[in-house]
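Recap for those who missed Tuesday's class. We walked through two folding examples back to back. For each one, the amino acid string is listed first and its predicted structure tokens come directly after. Nothing is annotated here on purpose, so try labeling regions yourself before you check the end of the notes.
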Amino acid sequence: MASGNEKYYVPEQSPWPIVGAVALFGVAVGGGLTVMKSPAGQFILYAGIGLLLFMLAGWFRHVIRESQGGLYSQQMDRSFRQGMAWFIFSEVMFFAAFFGALFYARMFAVPWLGGASNNAMTHELLWPSFEAVWPLLNTPSGDTTQAMGWQGLPLINTIILLISSVTLHFAHAAMEQDQRNKVKVFLGLTILLGFAFLALQVEEYVYAYQDLGLTLESGIYGNTFFMLTGFHGMHVTLGAIILAVVWLRVMKGHFSAHHHFAFQAGAWYWHFVDVVWLCLFVFVYVL
């Protein structure tokens, strides 16, 4: 190798990509068959999810061993950073689509159904008794629901996520100073706050279904509410699992003040999830 050149680790052939492809195919087919109420649907879906979890555990274990073995260079570190940045960007676009659906419904579809923009005839033909207000608490079938207020559990969950961002920042700062005990404490607190958020969201869903009559079948309001909050909850679950794995690695002595990108990637993802919740809290609960 010439002087000044940087080595780049080329991994050996791996079975994990094809295993992941098979797992995702099973999840897609199983999900579709489950919606169609096929007897084999749930079996294929759960088998696909199980295979996906097996793939993730095996692949990440392989990557961790390579990292701990000193096989990675600064170029590999830059590759990981670019990959994580693009992944978060794709997640931004994912939530942008759902927020876009919410804004379209509120700013265009609801006023049009109410007779705005010379759509009086559409209003009279499709839904004569329709009132252009948000949230829509009535459906064409005559069912009614109640709106979820921003106070109570949603506000508590907002505070929990904001505090979790602060504790994660302290953990990251401690990692950069190689203060491992502080890392363990603050990162552990962040994980506990994340799971507390999820527990309260489950309680909120129970309250919505049992007391408010707010379900996935409650028209466009129920659809957008559960799609946005549900997918966000899924991302909080993923983020909490990532941070839990990082915490276990910290307990095993992994990472150093200058080499801890897995920790940093988890922090990026968690802060992204927090920002999404703030937008969600404002546009879904408050406005």
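Example two. Treat it independently of the first, because the proteins are unrelated.
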Amino acid sequence: MVSEPAAEHDDIARAMRAVPRRDFLPRSQRPFAGQDQPLPIGRGQTSSQPTTVAAMLRLLRVPLGARVLDVGAGSGWTTALLAYLTGPQGSVLGVERDSRLSEWGAANLARTGMDWATLEHSAPGVLGKPRENGWDRILVSAAAAALPRTLVDQVGIGGRMVIPVRTTLLLIERLPDGRTRATDHGGYRFVPLIED
């Protein structure tokens, strides 16, 4: 396995320091922000374990200026981390199917001042957010029962998507000829992805 450049790891570590998890947790969970475990954020959802989030971001390899979709944005923490990685030249959209969580997550995100990132309530019956020419990067923070074709179709040429399918973390890459390649990156546990 080829190791990734140290600079990428540094970027992830810097993002984690710049965007503290504590700011995206309910008040009752903030004392536990430094623990490396999932924490409840309400509505049956969790803030993922920091080492898991870091592993997903390393696989995603978010470049400056990327157009990124965050599916299952919840508290807004991953949306904010992605925004930090894209920088102001990029754009990040978080989508969350629970309307109360999406409102809270949007407010958390707004406090970061990274106005190139937004979080919205997902459209009923729509998984992700289709866009012309697809997304450069897609992060999915909930486990699908099977790889959702609708999300794969939203990955642009040269793009990458990291998604848990059942208990396996997959990296989906869109090749220059339009085909996709899926690789397996170990076992993880996530809340289920609800597909309307």
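Answers for example two:
The CA atoms of residues 54 and 89 lie 22 Å apart.
DSSP finds five helices and nine strands in the chain.
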